[in-house]
Amino acid sequence: MMTGMINNIFFIIFPIVLYQMLAGAGKRNFFVDYRITMTILFSISIILCMLFPYQFLTDEYIFDLRQVPLIVGALYGGPVISAVLFVVSAVGRIWIGGDGMYIAILNQFVIAAGVPFIRPAYMRMERTMKVITVFVISILSLLFNMFAGYLLFGDPIHDIIGIWLMLMLNQGMMIVLTALLIEHIVRQELLLNTLMKHEKLESVSHFAAAVSHELRNPIQSIKGFIQLMQVYDYNREKQLEFHDTILNEINAAESLIDDYLIYAKPVYGELERMSVSDEVCGVLKLLGPYANSRDVELLCHKGEENVSIRGDRQKFRQAMVNIIRNGVEAMPEGGELVVRIKAQPAKVTVEVADTGVGMTKEEVERLGEPYFSNKIKGTGLGMMVTYSVIHQMKGAIIVNSEKGSGTVFKLVFPKYGL
């Protein structure tokens, strides 16, 4: 008896556990989001329960828990799922044959036809009421079998009432545990959705704060110069000087907005074949004077020549500028920054290593997050843009760093043509 009962319990629980393992985040509508898969799994559960029944108290009665997945499927899946599960259970019961076949099929039909009508109210119930509801439905289905046996076959109820009470308790407890497990999964998914939504809103608020803070500075400068020109009558040379300053501030604001747009909604120009060594050397040449002013030596080890990747040339250069500039700024006392290009059969790695102050493990994990920067006046936009650009090029960023020992950025791209 115990072995058969344990088998039936496993057949019922397994589809639910499998759903918990495979369901994607945000899929909290238990049956509907994976309608076909769950219908197949519950159909298999019903068949297995019927193929492996167990004897209950006496050798004259065998029993199985097929009604549990049938009732649960009807409640959480709706009328279409209920109809499919009824057909599966009815065909299986006809194939097995034996006494009580017509009563069993009639009982299954009543469940499949009646339970879906309860579904709208059931889905609005609190968890406690749901548990009570499934327990009552289970009891009513067994009472139907008991009285149908009495009316159709003359089975003496007073002789078998004890057996039926135990069956009701057995199936009732099983369906309650099943409903509780499903409700727990649904609640966990709801909490996960809420947490994900909260994190998105928090990221947006931080991002908005960073952008508004950075935009306010050039706007205030522009406003101040315009007010000065309104109040005082400056000569032409001074006015041109003010105009240049205002244009520089406008360019700074435009650059910030461009960074925001690249991160929020990357827009790429023509994707083309790029020589990695040419692009990297171009960036190093561009940043050479800036590095020299900070006593930082830039070195490049090209490795294999003519190694190519596919991407947007301008955005790739922008990402490299952000990483190399950060590396230079991480060496306030000067140092050495080395760029290595390594080619493998299927990928290309661009390695940027500095001898700067380094980062902790926690700081490395937060790289690319909105509003996170190791710089006093930084907003984190540069690294956010860099991560966005690299990922859009189907690349990956690996960062190894240790406080006081420098940082190594590894940018891994698929080789052109693969």
Automatic annotation (TrEMBL):
Matching InterPro entries: HATPase_C_sf, HATPase_dom, His_kinase_dom, HisK_dim/P_dom, HisK_dim/P_sf, Sensor_HK_Regulatory, Sig_transdc_His_kin-like_C, Sig_transdc_His_kinase_LytS_TM
Stretches that traverse the bilayer: 34-56, 68-95, 101-119, 131-154, 160-182
Compartments, record wording: Cell membrane
Protein keywords: ATP-binding, Cell membrane, Kinase, Membrane, Nucleotide-binding, Phosphoprotein, Transferase, Transmembrane, Transmembrane helix, Two-component regulatory system
Residue stretches making up the Histidine kinase domain: 210-417
Reaction catalysis annotation: ATP + protein L-histidine = ADP + protein N-phospho-L-histidine
EC category name: transferase
Membrane topology value: Multi-pass membrane protein
GO terms, molecular function: kinase activity
SUPFAM superfamilies in the cross-refs: ATPase domain of HSP90 chaperone/DNA topoisomerase II/histidine kinase (SSF55874), Homodimeric domain of signal transducing histidine kinase (SSF47384)
Gene3D superfamilies reported in the protein's UniProt record: 1.10.287.130, Histidine kinase-like ATPase, C-terminal domain
EC number: 2.7.13.3
One Pfam family named in its UniProt record: 5TM-5TMR_LYT
Primary location: membrane
Name of the protein described by the UniProt record: histidine kinase
Species in which this protein is naturally found: Planococcus salinarum
